[in-house]
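in:
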């Protein structure tokens, strides 16, 4: 019975992550809707829990997003999303040893850059392997990425700042 409630709790958490993604993307006005919610979730979860469950949560989140959001290639969110969560966990576990605001901002930067790089690499690799003959790069521009980066870092700054203020230091 305990494992049933544990599974139910994790499923509810996953549904709340998907709900948060949709609320930020579709309800908030433009500059705030450009926030990359999975990056914020990864960094905040690592700062609060410090567990590797985040990789599995991101697998579930990106799998549900792949199903619910139309995309030209299946896996163009799932594969880069899970790999960027793994990169973030690895960096947090082995490179960044303290829980400071600077660490959170740098971890958010690494996560978002790795996600966008892996997305571009996945799309290019898919185009090469599908033998279409036409190489199509991802359809986002540097301006959109800049706005996404700034809004994600701003949201991460606010959340981590208040989390670190609440944290008791001895």
């Amino acid at each position: 019975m305990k494992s049933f409630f544990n599974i139910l709790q994790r499923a509810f958490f996953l549904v709340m992550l998907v709900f948060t993604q949709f609320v930020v993307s579709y309800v908030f006005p433009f500059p705030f809707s450009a926030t990359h919610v999975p990056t914020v979730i990864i960094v905040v979860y690592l700062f609060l829990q410090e567990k590797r469950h985040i990789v599995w949560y991101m697998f579930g989140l990106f799998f549900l997003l792949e199903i619910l959001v139309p995309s030209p290639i299946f896996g163009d969110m799932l594969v880069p999303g899970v790999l960027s969560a793994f990169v973030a966990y690895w960096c947090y576990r082995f490179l960044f040893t303290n829980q400071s605001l600077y660490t959170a901002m740098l971890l958010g930067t690494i996560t978002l850059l790795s996600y966008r790089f892996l997305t571009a690499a996945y799309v290019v690799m898919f185009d090469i392997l599908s033998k279409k003959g036409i190489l199509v790069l991802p359809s986002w521009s540097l301006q959109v990425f800049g706005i996404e980066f700034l809004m994600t870092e701003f949201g991460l700054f606010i959340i981590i700042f208040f989390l670190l203020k609440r944290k008791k230091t001895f």
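note: Residues 101-129 form the longest helix (29 residues).
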